[in-house]
Design brief:
The chain is of the alpha+beta class and 592 residues long. It folds into 3 domains: 144 residues, Creatine Amidinohydrolase, Chain A, domain 1, CATH 3.40.350.10; 143 residues, Creatinase/prolidase N-terminal domain (Creatine Amidinohydrolase, Chain A, domain 1), CATH 3.40.350; 284 residues, Creatinase/methionine aminopeptidase superfamily (Creatine Amidinohydrolase, Alpha-Beta Complex), CATH 3.90.230. The chain is built from 19 helices and 28 strands. The termini are far apart.
């Protein structure tokens, strides 16, 4: 069925229900960034495969809103005759509620599936459309009902994440949640976020590619915990362990029915940004709702000493895999056929040889030349190109290990490259170093730090459209909140134990992309009469290619950081390498 035919079927359904527009976001009932195939509704109707985007369909028109990471990808994937691309953040581009307010007549009705939008997002949509006298109906799953041949919800087994990796038992973690509930006078706490449920229960799954999570909802009550999951996903051993911790298992589909039966005198704690609006709508109006950042979001983000210790070891192993890959690439490019796809597969094989490896943490971004300028480029058999012994190659990749999740980007020259790229690369490196060296008072938010990574680029009239840093899970989702380092302020302070990415970049359309990414740990640096001051420890260990560096653009302090980092990379990785790879690494980490 063509995109035009799918949109026609949707419009026929809309007409039957008396709605003039339909909003189709990217998420699932758990508001996941990466949903399973069952929930890729927007992708099925639009053909756009990026992880962020909203499709809006009216009786006459359709638009896809996405951010700058996906502009080039969306141009390639969308049928421009059926769907118009709206580049979020560009001057003069309306958001989809503004657009709907302009194209719809007063009295029109807009449908959105309440299970796929958060409480806070539905409120914003309703508020903004109200000014145009347009109403919102969140009770229909319009698009889902039209989806022909929709894949089923995955039914993969859940497995234990052993306590030795976690540093705390599920009962200890749940007690932390209960303490927060008592502090807030809450009798119930609802969690729909898959990574939160997996983390607090010390369980993992295989329902979503690259994300070791499983489909479930959870309600923590004063005296017990209720887990809504299809029971056959649990082994007998796991079921017994859950029962021993006073966790009652109910069917996944019964979550809304159970919420409707929460007593009217209850006080329910929930996160309006991480709870779907259908859950909220199922609560009795008389129930007291306490809305705040999910307790599990913050607990999970501040890694324990045990988690940090295991991640350090994991990043050593990941660094070994990267060294093997980068040397292999340098030795073989131009001598045998290597493509974007085969290079990504080769890197996966090097990671798979490392202890504790479970899988990749996201689809490897393997971008040669102009493909590197597509920030979230996803190589496939149609787009795959051969790597030639010239130009730049960007590879952004990561692994899922029992001892943590990794995410690293390196940009390497495969041969002759334009001189402009040397300047661009060095400016990106300067921004990377500036953030890595940041010292800041406790209470600082990511928005305050973002400028450090951009300053050198701005001074040369350059910039990048994505955030500088995201949180990262612990053998969980590669993108994790609540912290972020970006120009938009989300009000979240950097706390000790948070692990974030440091990934400035620059992208020149049809030429190349440059990004340098390491993981950094927030920690307390010192206490003084002026307060508590924090800094970052760079955890990732892998050479940063010096062939692209213009040393004349670096300050003495920046050179010192670069050389000290490379000395540490060599000292820690060399003992794990054979003589051949040691010699290669020694050359790659020579001081500049």
């Amino acid at each position: 069925m063509q995109i035009s035919e799918r949109l026609l079927a949707l419009r026929n359904k809309m007409d039957a229900l008396g709605v003039e527009a339909c909003i189709i976001p990217s998420g699932d009932p758990h508001l996941s960034e990466y949903p399973s195939e069952h929930w890729k509704i927007r992708e099925w109707f639009s053909g756009f495969t990026g992880s962020a985007g909203t499709l809006v369909v009216t009786t006459e028109e359709a638009g896809l809103w996405t951010d700058s990471r996906y502009f080039l990808q969306a141009e390639d994937e969308l049928d421009a005759q059926c769907i118009q691309l709206f580049r979020e953040g560009d001057p003069g581009v309306p958001d989809y509620t503004q657009w709907l307010g302009e194209v719809l007549m007063p009295g029109s009705k807009v449908a959105v599936n309440g299970e796929t939008v958060s409480v806070s997002l539905l409120r914003r949509i309703s508020r903004e459309l109200r000014t145009a006298q347009v109403s919102v109906d969140a009770s229909h799953a319009v698009a889902e009902e039209v989806y022909d041949g929709r894949p089923p919800i995955p039914e993969n087994d859940v497995f234990l994440h052993e306590e030795k990796w976690c540093g705390a038992s599920r009962s200890e973690k749940l007690e932390q949640v209960h303490q927060i509930m008592r502090k807030n006078g809450a009798s119930h706490y609802i969690s729909a976020a898959l990574d939160e449920i997996a983390w607090v229960l010390n369980l993992r799954g295989n329902d979503v590619p690259y994300n070791p999570v499983f489909h479930a909802f959870m309600i923590v009550e004063t005296s017990q915990v209720k887990l809504f999951i299809n029971p056959h996903k649990l082994t007998a051993q796991i079921a017994r362990k859950l029962e021993a911790d006073n966790i009652k298992v109910s069917l996944y589909e019964e979550i809304y029915k159970h919420i409707r039966h929460i007593p009217e005198d209850a006080t329910v704690l929930l996160d309006p940004d991480r709870t779907n609006s259908a859950i909220f709508a199922a609560l009795s109006p008389k129930v007291t709702k306490k809305e705040q950042l999910s307790p599990l979001t913050r607990l999970k983000a501040q890694k324990s000493d045990t988690e940090v210790q295991h991640l350090r070891e994991t990043l050593l192993n990941d660094g070994v895999a990267m060294v093997h890959f980068l040397k292999w690439l340098e030795d073989h490019v131009g001598k045998e056929k290597i493509t974007e796809l085969s290079a990504a597969q080769k890197l996966k094989s090097f990671r798979a040889a490392q202890p504790g490896f479970v899988g990749e943490s996201f689809g490897t971004i393997s971008g040669y030349a102009g493909h590197g300028a597509i920030v979230h480029y996803s190589v496939n058999e149609e787009s795959d190109v051969e790597l030639k012994p010239e130009g730049l190659y960007l590879i952004d990749s990561g692994g899922q290990y029992h001892g943590g999740t990794t995410d690293i980007t390196r940009t390497v020259p495969l041969g002759k490259f334009p001189e402009q790229a040397r300047t661009d690369y060095t400016l990106v490196l300067k921004g990377h170093i500036a953030l890595a060296c940041a010292v800041f008072p406790k209470g600082t938010r990511g928005v305050h730090l973002d400028i450090l990574a951009r300053k050198a680029l701005w001074e040369h009239g350059l910039n990048y459209g994505h955030g500088t840093g995201h949180g990262i899970g612990y053998f969980l989702n590669v993108h994790e909140g609540p912290q972020s380092i970006r120009p938009q302020d989300n009000g979240i302070e950097m706390e000790p134990g948070m692990i974030s990415s440091n990934e400035p970049g620059v992208y020149r359309r049809d030429q190349y992309g440059i990004r340098i990414e390491n993981l950094i740990l927030s920690r307390v640096k010192q206490e003084s009469e002026f307060g508590t001051f924090m800094d970052f420890e760079t955890l990732t260990l892998c050479p940063i290619d010096s062939r692209l560096v213009d040393a004349g653009l670096l300050t003495p302090d920046e050179k010192a950081w670069f050389n000290n980092y490379h000395q540490r990379v060599y000292e820690q990785l060399a003992p794990r390498l054979d003589q051949d790879h040691q010699q290669w690494l020694k050359e790659k980490t020579k001081a500049i």
